[in-house]
Amino acid sequence: MNIPVMPKSILTITNYQTDAIISKQLLKKNNGTVTLYAFDKDESLNDSTSPFDILIHVLEGTIDLKVNGTSNLIKVNEYFPLPAKIPYSIEAKEKTKILLTVIK
């Protein structure tokens, strides 16, 4: 098994890009994934539904997470567990980085 020699700073793995969402998959296993997203201000993921449970953790910035049409303002160091098959959308209120964990 390869074990990383040194820890990495999660906030420096991806950089922001103007008018874009950047994603970097950090871990992919049969039972789930962990993906880092960097949103420029006002960028959004619209009308998504996951067949699996997810955890959205805001590492930097603020998002408006709409779940079944209800708005939830999630700020830095806050997280939101979301059950499978629930419609959601994410809009960055400022430059924002989130960690999205999918559990199968």
Describe this structure in words.
By secondary structure, the protein is mainly β. It contains no helices and nine strands. The protein has strands at residues 21-29, 32-39, 44-48, 53-60, 62-67, 70-75, 79-82, 88-92, 96-103. Strands 1-2-9-4-7 form a five-stranded antiparallel β-sheet, with no helix packed on it. Strand 1 (21-29) and strand 2 form a beta hairpin. The two termini are 23 Å apart. The mean pLDDT is 94.
Summarize the structure.
The chain is mainly beta and 104 residues long.
Key attributes of the depicted protein:
104 residues; 4-stranded antiparallel sheet; 9 strands; single chain
Per-chain topology:
Elements: E1 21-29, E2 32-39, E3 44-48, E4 53-60, E5 62-67, E6 70-75, E7 79-82, E8 88-92, E9 96-103
Antiparallel strand pairs: 1-2, 2-9, 3-8, 4-7, 4-9, 5-6, 5-8
Estimate the strand proportion: over 45%
**Terminal Cα separation, in Å?**
23 Å
Gross morphology is globular
Largest sheet geometry: 5 strands, antiparallel
What radius of gyration results from the CA coordinates? 14 Å
How many helices? 0
List the secondary-structure elements in sequence, H or E.
EEEEEEEEE
Low-confidence stretches are none
Structural class by sheet pairing and helices: mainly beta
The overall pLDDT, averaged over residues, is 94
**Helical fraction:** under 10%
Total number of beta strands: 9
Q: Order of strands across the biggest sheet?
A: 1-2-9-4-7
Looking at how many chains there are and whether they match, the oligomeric state comes to single chain
